[in-house]
Amino acid sequence: TSDVEWTISGKVWVDGKAVPANPTITHKETKEPRNGKPSIWGSPYSGTPIRYDDIVVNKIAK
């Protein structure tokens, strides 16, 4: 068991509506992340566009 814990969180909302105060999606992981660069992707459905904005990656000190 690793003593590493990290979290990915994000907010999802309909364009033109208010931004949620708290994350609407969160994933906690206990495996150490692999080396490399972060990336995101998505697959739209029903012709609905996906937009990404204000992407921030932070290393949080222990």
Automatic annotation (TrEMBL):
Residues 20-47 are annotated as: Disordered. Residues 26-35 have a biased composition (Basic and acidic residues). This is 3-keto-disaccharide hydrolase domain-containing protein.
